[in-house]
């Protein structure tokens, strides 16, 4: 597994709820790449509770969506926006998990639409949640201008933007 750097950390005002390490109310996710799959290891905190002892479903949806966006950044070499998110909650994700794993990969692309499959796996290896996520991707030069996209190589280099 290859560690993915977060090249946005040096960007002024960067406060993404999913991935900014500066957002203390956020999920502060970080990522690895395993083949063409983005992987995140994440520890659920009790303040993300829904039903007693269970990780809130909205937080799960955000974890899955955020991982999908990092597939665009690091596998497809561009950026975009979520246009659809369908989540299947199969099993509760307990807050007692020391670590859960979120995985996301491209299922297919169709012109500028990117269809991503993502899943959330608990520490016993049970796939608790699955998501189908559609992203509206933009060409890289627009991503650079509109979304401060630094280029794929920046995610694997030490340098920050
Ligand atoms: C800086 C640090 C960062 C740090 C890192 C930050 C990571 C953040 C990750 C979080 C990700 C998010 O939450 S993103 C935030 C949530 N998402 C959004 O806010 C997106 C809101 N939606 C939009 O802005 C807009 O709908 C766009 C830009 C996506 C598309 O608008 P548009 O350009 O007007 O295009 P539109 O006409 O709607 O669609 C173009 C064509 O694509 C088709 N199309 C569009 N969506 C779909 C779809 N889901 N399934 C089928 N087809 C679709 C349309 O039918 C149409 O076909 P035809 O008629 O041409 O045939």
TrEMBL record:
Where, per UniProt, does this protein localize?
Cell projection, Ruffle membrane; Cytoplasm; Membrane
Its membrane topology is listed as:
Peripheral membrane protein
Q: What InterPro entries does the record tag this protein with? A: HotDog_dom_sf, THEM4/THEM5_acyl-CoA_thioest, Thioestr_dom
Keyword annotations:
Apoptosis, Cell membrane, Cell projection, Cytoplasm, Fatty acid metabolism, Hydrolase, Lipid metabolism, Membrane, Transit peptide
Is the Transferase keyword given for this protein? no
Instruction: Quote the catalytic activity from the record.
Output: decanoyl-CoA + H2O = decanoate + CoA + H(+); dodecanoyl-CoA + H2O = dodecanoate + CoA + H(+); hexadecanoyl-CoA + H2O = hexadecanoate + CoA + H(+); (5Z,8Z,11Z,14Z)-eicosatetraenoyl-CoA + H2O = (5Z,8Z,11Z,14Z)-eicosatetraenoate + CoA + H(+)
The UniProt entry, under SUPFAM superfamilies, shows: Thioesterase/thiol ester dehydrase-isomerase
Q: Name one GO molecular function term.
A: hydrolase activity
PANTHER family hit by this protein: ACYL-COENZYME A THIOESTERASE THEM4
* Name of the protein this chain belongs to: Acyl-coenzyme A thioesterase THEM4
> Which source organism?
Rarispira pelagica
């Amino acid at each position: 597994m290859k560690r993915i750097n977060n090249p946005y950390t040096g960007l002024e005002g960067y406060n993404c709820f999913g991935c900014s390490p500066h957002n203390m109310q956020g999920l502060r996710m970080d990522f690895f790449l395993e083949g063409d799959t983005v992987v995140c290891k994440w520890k659920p905190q009790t303040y993300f509770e829904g039903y007693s002892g269970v990780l809130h479903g909205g937080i799960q949806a955000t974890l899955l969506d955020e991982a999908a966006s990092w597939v665009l950044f690091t596998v497809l070499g561009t950026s975009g926006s979520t246009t659809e998110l369908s989540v299947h909650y199969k099993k509760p994700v307990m807050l007692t998990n020391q670590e859960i794993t979120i995985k996301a990969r491209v299922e297919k692309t169709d012109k500028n639409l990117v269809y991503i499959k993502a899943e959330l796996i608990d520490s016993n290896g049970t796939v608790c949640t699955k998501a189908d996520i559609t992203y509206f991707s933009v060409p890289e030069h627009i991503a650079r201008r509109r979304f401060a996209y630094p280029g794929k190589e920046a995610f694997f280099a030490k340098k920050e933007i």
